[in-house]
Amino acid sequence: MSEDKVRWGILGTARIARKNWKAIGLTGNATVAAVASRDVERSRQFIAECQAEAPMERVPEAFGSYEELLAGDRVDAVYIPLPTGLRKEWVLRAAAAGKHIVCEKPCAVSVGDLRDMLEACRAHRVQFMDGVMFMHSRRLDRLREVLDDGESVGQVRRITSAFSYGAPREFFEANIRADSTLEPHGCVGDLGWYCIRLALWVMNRQIPRQVTGRLLSKFGPGGAGGAVPTEFSGELLFTEGVSAGFYCSFLTENQQWANIGGTRGYIEIRDFVLPFAGNEAAFEVQNIVFRSHGGDFRMEAHPRQIAIDETSHGHANAQETNLFRNFSNQVRSGGLNEQWPEIALNTQAVMGACLDSAQADGKPVQLD
Fold first, then answer.
1. Is residue 325 included in any domain, yes or no?
2. d(CA 313, CA 300)
3. Domain check: are 108 and 248 in the same one?
4. Which residues contact 245 (CB under 8 A, 6 or more apart)?
């Protein structure tokens, strides 16, 4: 790869693709070169609307099929926001065409499918990464420093998180995330993926030895593959007794918080997935002290706010822009980052085990 900008193709015109179109344009090392959908007019309309808000220097080409976009040498990398039920086919095709791949999450219907996808990427020497934006926030660098300083949190013992939003009635009538053929994992794939990923990141990519899951509510008919999870809780048990719990839901109003507790204190992140609007990304370290003297019982809060300069969205230093900038730099390097596909596979494996446990009425599932 030369020092020229990485040329991106977008497979599909999902709403999230509009955000990532803008992010690609802000990277400085990449550009959108093509967009494909099953209808060329839809591609043209998508391009026109995105160009009006965040124009590329050269207007991207519009294609009426994904095959057309992958053919030839028009693009170097593709972003795939297609439904989970379709991703395996198009990741395999993109890899065979020599295109590097950013794939939305959850990456696949099953662990086996994702293993096939990653093997194809390795065989064709293309980079793979899932689209978890918070992994590319500079806030995580600062968070890791605090976790590793030995004083602020001490030894991590417990990780808890929740990610939910209250979906309106029409969501369940028309949104693909309520369709088991397209998004069989429901809220666990759409929201729980982030909670699981955070726990794995805090634990330095260690796999839990055991997980349990509870399906709290579902939508759709019964039977094999008929209903999708709409509310779910999971528990992960790591070595040395460290545990992580998460809750995700399409029924509970917006929340996206995380708490990392240890032997000396804890960290609170109020917006670990999508940073609250502003020009800072922050978290709070809390070291509570309890004092007593006679009948005087005193609980003292000693909070410490840590913030970095990072705009929440739509900016050159926002986490979604960092994602595409980092990926494009990797492509330009000519090498492959093996950690990105590894953590995607681990996340898929843990998610799948949680769902398996829920199907067995919460029976623990062991992981290697």
1. no
2. 35
3. no
4. 158, 159, 160, 161, 233, 234, 235, 236
CB 325 within 8 A of CB 289: no
Q: Are residues 207 and 356 in the same domain?
A: yes
Q: How many domains does the chain have?
A: 2
pLDDT at 258 over 50: yes
- Residue 339 counted as domain residue: no
Contacts of residue 215, defined as CB under 8 A and 6 or more positions apart, other chains included, come to: 229, 231, 232, 358, 359
**In the numeric block, which tokens belong to residue 99?**
């295109």
Give bridge partners of residue 269 from the DSSP assignment: 258
Q: Based on the fold, state whether residues 34 and 129 are members of the same structural domain.
A: yes
Tell me, yes or no, whether 331 lies in a domain.
no
Is 280 a member of any domain? Answer: yes
pLDDT tens digits along 89-127: 999 999 999 999 999 999 999 999 999 999 999 999 999
Residues 6+ apart with CB under 8 A from 143: 267, 269, 283
Q: Read off the pTM.
A: 0.96
Across the chain, what does the average pLDDT equal? 95
Q: What CA–CA distance (Å, rounded) separates 308 from 5?
A: 28
How much of the chain, in percent, has pLDDT values that exceed 90? 90
The rounded distance, in Å, linking the Cα atoms of 231 and 333 is: 42
> Which of 66, 102, 73 shows the shortest CA–CA distance to 327?
102
Domain that holds residue 261: 137-319+346-366
Position 225 scores a pLDDT of 54
327-356 b/e with 16+ CB inside 10 Å = b?
bbebbbeeebbeebbebbbbbbbbbbbbbe
